[in-house]
Amino acid sequence: MGPLLNRVSAGRVQVQDASGTLWKGQARLALGAGPDSGVLMAVPGLLSWRLRPMWNDGSGPGLQMQAQHPVLDGQTALLAAQLGVRPSGLGWSFQLQGTPGDGSLTAQLPAAWLAGLGAPWNTLQPSGRLQFRLQRLSGTVQGGGPATLDLALRIELMDIASRISTLPVLGDYELLLEGGPVVQARLSSRPGSALQLEGQGRWTLGGPVAFRGQAWALAGREEALSNLLNIIGRRDGPRSLMAYGSPGLDGPPPAATQ
Asked: Which residues lie below 8 Å from residue 120, measured CB to CB, with a gap of 6+?
């Protein structure tokens, strides 16, 4: 399972010090900058899991995993995978949700952990809080056919600051990931943020990530944010243009709004 998670996340999330068995065990998670980066940041706390077989009438055999981690704030992540027979061959369907409650899954992380993912986070050295709310995640993996994905994830970045800025707080931001099989991403700033961010991107399961956006300083904050804007993108006058991942995202960067 460790090598699988490493491969799926392109080396960004790795498993360390695993103990127990496939059916019941625990391990530590670490964030990395990618394959062969050699630099890892351990996530405090242990991930524990229980895996058991299940059978739903008419749906075929499957597996259910219950996982817990301190960042889930008392919730349990419930992952169910079902094996079915389709015209293209055998295939798996899966769904991840939280329990108890409405099925959504929330997690809270310190923004400082982003530095473990490498550039540009290790340069920015962010601080603040991240809150994740997973509203839905499901999909299918079909033998001989394309995989599908349906995702709705909201990430709130609150009280964000950076060591390379003299401002105590840069602002609050929101990243929405939604859709499938092509997942659309939209980054926006909360009103009053000193550093204004806007961007959009997309990701296809098993394919590359593309993101384009821009950053600029709120009026009166230009001098304090000049160095930061030089680092996070290519300067175009008062704005910094950001482009990460695949160049396949067509169209100009989103227009600035005041």
From this structure: 231, 232
Say if 4 falls within a structural domain. no
Strands (E), the chain: 13-20, 24-32, 40-56, 60-68, 76-86, 89-99, 105-110, 126-142, 148-162, 171-179, 182-189, 195-204, 209-217, 234-236, 239-245
Q: Which of 197, 207, 209 is nearest to 254 (CA)?
A: 197
Cα distance between residue 198 and residue 188, in whole Å: 5
Read off the amino acid at residue 64: Q
The string of pLDDT tens digits covering residues 205-245 is: 767 789 999 999 999 999 999 999 999 999 999 999 999 87
Q: Scanning the structure block, which residue is given the tokens 């943020």?
A: 193
With H, G, I as helix, E, B as strand and everything else as coil, classify residue 121. helix
Q: Which of 57, 64, 93 lies closest to 80 in space, CA to CA?
A: 64
Q: How far is residue 188's CA from residue 175's CA, in Å, rounded to a whole number? A: 7
Domain range spanning residue 184?
58-245
Task: State the Cα–Cα distance between residues 49 and 30, nearest whole angstrom.
Answer: 17
- Is 214 among the domain residues? yes
In a domain, 112, yes or no: yes
Can you read off the two tokens belonging to residue 197? 């961010």
Over residues 83-138, the pLDDT tens digits come to 775 555 677 888 898 887 788 999 998 999 888 877 788 888 999 999 999 999 99
Intra-chain end-to-end CA distance of the chain, in Å: 47
